[in-house]
Amino acid sequence: MTPAATAHVQHLVDSLPLRDKIAQLIMPWLLGGYEPVDATEMAQALKWVNTDRVGGIIISIGSPTEIAAKLNALQRAAPLPLLVASDLEGGTTFRFSTGGTAFPTQMGIGASGREDDAYQMGRITALEGRAVGIHLAFAPVADVNSNPNNPIINTRSFGGDPHAVARLVSATIHGIRDNGMFATAKHFPGHGDTETDSHLSLPTITAGWNRFDTLELVPFRAAIGAGVDAVMSAHIALPALDPGQQRPGTLSPPVLTGILRDSLQFKGIIATDALQMGAIVKEVGADEAPVLAFLAGSDLLLMPTDVGQAIDAMVRAVESGRITLARVDQSVRKILTMKEQLGLFQHREVDLNRVSSVVGRTEFRQIGMDATQRSIVLLKDSTGIVDRMRTAPQAVTLVVMSESGITLGVTLTTDLRRKGFTIRQVTVPLTADATTRDSLLRSIDRSTVALIAASVRVSSGKGTIALPTGAELMINALAARQPTVLVSFGSPYLISQVPSVPSYLLAWTGSASSESAVANALSGTAITGKSPILIPNGGTIGTGLQRAGH
Predict the structure, then answer these.
(1) Which of 188, 255, 276, 415: disulfide with 519, CB 3.0–4.6 Å?
(2) Are 229 and 182 in contact (CB under 8 A)?
């Protein structure tokens, strides 16, 4: 920054009242969809920015124009410009309900293994995000997904090889930062080897320093080397790194200050994960959570249970001497410096007329589609069903198995029909009972290929990533009676529960572009993806049948 900009930041730090300084550290969460100004949620948001004077907002799901309009309204109401963050992991479609450029999740990028795909994902995320008023991506996920039973990371990670993950994390960070947005590596020191959803309760990783040093910390070191601006902590107990304690890493000085600040020499912003999550509030309560997280080393306090209560608790902690004013000023200076670097003190709103010229433009969608096509993995084709489908169109019964509220199969059906396949579609609830399963089995022509499109996805608070028993029984029954191809549009580990399925494709997410990529792969387009994870009953890292295009 220029000397004048540095002086401006310091003047603000010196002049802000204590309560306003602490408010700069708080970032509540808000849906991005349209709301009239007098709606309860919008009135609450306006109170946060105008009365509580929070430093920023975490914006969630909404259309690009809805998000941009809502953020402009909040920016106009805020005494100081807001720093806006969003969980844009795997591209903007993670939070844009429509219009954003689709990528195949981070693990899909891991399946291609191409650093340029990761860079382009970061680049387009930054350009589309900045167009709607987002400044800080809570991305990329730097966790190494080393545990197949992990219910909350899964396809959000680039994979299971720490060095491959490190390469792709670095490339994504460069793509984000080169194009005007700040990047966050999460969830420090690594959330990949857990079997508990931290949204519900506190996971524990018992591994010692040597394991962390050679596995979990490898991508975080790479992220710091790539200039990452922020690191988000994990709500995970780490007894070997935090001796004698059974507390979340978010609340641990040895983890955030000792390892991240001192050992890894990270100088940027440390952000908590959401302070309202079960792993925090069940352990220490809503009042103590922000204070303990700040004492541990955090700068940004995300999503406290109650904004006003969190600010009050922090003010009391300063006034009682638990927290020093110098430490508060240090964190506030970092946040105001980020706002200064973004130019928010000069111009805090975005041009609504420009949104449609940036978000989802044809060039971006083609880049995303190309990356998605490269992400498709043919993990198994033991009886050659996929190879036969690629040779000539087949009669197919498309069996759609997805979670409630998830639309799947429309694009796949349309594209396969366009390529000459005869398609009949049936929909089966993932939780189908025996009567439903038997009825559907009787209705399916045994002479056709059963193409199962399944979507089991990460969802906070669900606590599991496994196929429900009803779906497992249905898939096994189909595989026992006719040619069957299982396509996972979500968790790649489904084959672990249904190893008798002869053909298995990984497509990572249920986007329209992923469905199109699968239709292309089944029709003769090259299949080049390789599994970036070890899959029980499915092969080691690097497994993937390669097929040339024709």
Answers:
(1) 415
(2) yes
Domain extent, residue 417, equals: 376-522
Within-domain flag for 363: no
Q: Within this chain, do residues 346 and 411 fall inside the same structural domain, yes or no? A: no
Burial (0-12, 13-18, 19+ Cβ within 10 Å), 347: exposed
pLDDT value of residue 114 = 98
- With contact defined as beta carbons under 8 Å apart, do 294 and 334 qualify? no
Asked if 318 and 447 sit in the same domain, the reply is no
In the set 135, 174, 191, 199, the catalytic residue is 199
pLDDT tens by residue, 347-390: 999 999 999 999 999 999 999 999 999 999 999 999 999 999 99
213 an active-site residue?
no
- The predicted pLDDT at position 430 comes to 84
Indicate which residue of 229, 273, 287, 299 is catalytic. Answer: 273
**Are residue 337 and residue 454 in the same domain, yes or no?**
no
Given 358, 389, 413, the domain boundary residue is: 358
Is residue 411's pLDDT more than 80? yes
CB neighbour list of residue 228: distance below 8 Å, 6 or more residues apart? 173, 183, 184, 185, 268
Do both 138 and 276 map to the same domain? yes
- Of residues 401 and 282, more confidently modeled: 401
The pLDDT of residue 155:
95
Cα–Cα distance measured from residue 547 to residue 528, given in angstroms and rounded to the nearest whole number: 7
Tell if the pTM clears 0.70, that is, is over it: yes
In sequence order, the 6+-apart residues with CB closer than 8 A to the CB of 83 are 27, 55, 56, 135, 136, 335, 338, 339, 342, 344
Taking 60 as the threshold, does the pLDDT of residue 478 lie above it? yes
CATH number of 447's domain? 3.40.50.1700
User: Across the chain, what does the average pLDDT equal?
Assistant: 93
Q: Left (φ > 0), alpha (ψ -120 to 50) or beta: where does 253 sit? A: alpha
Do residues 179 and 302 both lie within one domain?
yes
459 has a pLDDT exceeding 70: no
Which residue type is seen at 51? T
Q: Is residue 527 part of a domain?
A: no
Question: Can the peptide bond before residue 429 be classed as cis, meaning omega within 30 degrees of 0?
Answer: no
Mean pLDDT of the 93-113 span: 96
367 in any annotated domain: no
273 assigned to active site? yes
Residue 298 maps to which CATH number?
A: 3.20.20.300
> Is 530 inside a domain boundary?
no
Q: Interhelix angle for 512-522 vs 410-418, to 10°?
A: 30
pLDDT at residue 428, rounded to an integer: 86
